[in-house]
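Data deposition worksheet. Section B asks for the primary sequence of the deposited chain exactly as it was used as input, without tags or linkers unless they were present during the calculation. Section C holds the resulting structure in token form. Section D is free text for depositor observations; keep each observation to a single sentence. Incomplete worksheets are returned to the depositor.
Section A, Depositor: J.P.
Section B:
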Amino acid sequence: MLRRLTRAPQSRAQLAEALAAKGIPDEVAGQVLDRMVEVGLVNDAEYAELYVRSRRASRGLAPRVLAQELRAKGISAELIDHELSTIDVEDDRALASSLVHKRLPATAGLDPQARTRRLANMLIRKGFNSSLAFEVVRSSLQGDEMLE
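Section C:
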């Protein structure tokens, strides 16, 4: 268990799964995990905070996708809601705009509709809502045309 935690932070649910896979009885696993929480080795709130910060920085993910990923890792809905409430619309808009600007050069030879579709779909796959995605893409493309 400690070896897993030294490689990367883990949620309580992930560690519980690992213990179950090793055939550790649920009662014993629960005691071990309770003790790990008690001494601060496992902290789902801290894990969720680090996870959100990391995934937004490395992959540019929006709250919708982050919530799905955190649920899959066994983080409670309350912790997910709390952590994602720290992200405001302007943070999302800035992140989406940054992602589009990075991809603009790769779409330079495409017609405007194809460019818009590709860039907006990229943002939607990352969890941004479609209205924000198309708004950011249109704004970025207008700015890109002015530079040409």
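Section D:
The two ends are 56 Å apart (CA to CA).
Residues 60 and 95 are 7 Å apart (CA to CA).
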